[in-house]
Design a protein that fits this description.
By secondary structure, the protein is α/β, with parallel strands linked by helices. The chain has two domains: 70 residues, Translation initiation factor 3 (IF-3), N-terminal domain (Ubiquitin-like (UB roll)); 83 residues, 2-Layer Sandwich (Translation Initiation Factor IF3). The chain is built from four helices and eight strands; from the N terminus they run ββαββαβαβαββ. The strands form two sheets. A four-stranded mixed β-sheet has the order 2-1-4-3. The protein has a four-stranded mixed β-sheet with strand order 5-6-8-7, with helices on one face. Strand 1 and strand 2 form a beta hairpin. Belongs to the IF-3 family.
């Protein structure tokens, strides 16, 4: 439950609550007033941790410290997340050998880094009649990087562009 929706102290609207003290021991089902009194005596907050339960479960805790710990955990989880980007590399069907090798190096670099690669061949003018040249280039790329990545989407013509998507191998 997000902390904006968390009910604290007087915001709790139940008559009776299942109370858990600051050490984590179950006190039992208590009237809300008594639970609030116990939390004030301990100089802590009464926090509704399970509002959907019958009766709602409330815990006596330092709410400020709890929120701080929660935000630290969320920040740590975001740090460990890996965002996968899609890098696009464009070709033309009349590309020279040296240029293909340069772009191949970039594709390998992106796959090693864990990014997906979108290979696009743009056909201009009458080049569209030579789709087989574009498919050969994309097939060669897939062959060259088969140890680093898999073909996620086979070469497909969309308008004047032939597109293939490579994703990094999962067993790395």
């Amino acid at each position: 439950m997000s902390r904006e929706q968390q009910q604290v102290n007087e915001a709790i609207r139940a008559r009776e609550v299942r109370l858990i003290d600051s050490q984590g021991n179950q006190v039992g089902i208590k009237p809300l007033r008594e639970a609030l009194r116990l939390s004030r005596e301990a100089d802590l907050d009464l926090v509704n941790v399970a509002p959907q339960a019958k009766p709602p479960v409330c815990r006596i805790m330092d709410y400020g410290k709890y929120r701080y710990e929660q935000s630290k955990r969320e920040k740590e989880a975001r740090k460990k997340q890996k965002t996968i980007q899609i890098k696009e590399i464009r070709f033309s069907p009349s590309i020279e050998e040296h240029d293909v090798n340069t772009k191949l190096r970039n594709v390998k670099k992106f796959l090693k880094k864990g990014d997906k690669v979108k290979l696009t061949i743009r056909f201009r003018g009458r080049e569209i009649t030579h789709q087989d040249l574009g498919r050969k280039i994309l097939d060669r790329m897939a062959r060259e990087v088969k140890d680093l990545g898999d073909v996620e989407r086979q070469p497909k013509l969309e308008g004047r562009h032939m597109i293939m998507i490579l994703s990094p191998k999962t067993s790395q």
